[in-house]
Amino acid sequence: TINLSKxxxxxxxxxxxxxxxxxxxKLFPHLQIYSFEPNQDIFPILKKNSEQAxxxxxxxxxxxxxxxxKLYYAPSASAEGSFLKENLxxxxxxxxxxxISINVLRPTKxxxxxxxxxxxxxxxxxxxxxxxxxVLKSLKDINFNYLYIEISLKRKGENKPENIAKIINKxxxxxxxxxxxxxxxxxxxxxNLLFSI
Length: 197
Known about the structure:
This protein is α/β, with parallel strands linked by helices. It has five helices and eleven strands, in the order E-H-E-H-E-E-E-E-E-H-E-H-E-H-E-E. The strands form two sheets. A seven-stranded mixed β-sheet has the order 3-2-1-8-9-11-10, sandwiched between helices. A four-stranded mixed β-sheet has the order 4-7-5-6. The longest helix has 12 residues, at 161-172. The two termini are 12 Å apart.
């Protein structure tokens, strides 16, 4: 586990409306949290929640290159927004699926500096509904101590804990130790993993 009282910075990619960062900030007010959410339809909610919690928010996604991309989401379930349309039907048949253009940023040293996001982060959280491998690889200019990542299991973008550990070893030259594997339900399409780096 992580002693959150002893860390200072959190990078959250795929923040949605800020549930995780809002809770963290309320429990650990000293944390500096940098939340990224590309969906401009829900970004105002994230911004409002972040003002109450005094966190930094950015209307971008992370990816292998800086570009405009399509994001699919259902307004009734914005937390399931994905680059992969088929992933929206992982739990329920979603209606009124929207297809919007979003800004994706490749987080280089220069782009992070421009946004005043530190290149040294204590905890990185990634929740991107099937794009976790691409997002993790895009973070090569960021050094971090812990990774809390949701990986896809029974949907497009399927992943395994050992694959995440291999990516970390290959890019950062460090061993990733799995501290937690949490499967919300037996048939869940995703699991949450916590690694120390």
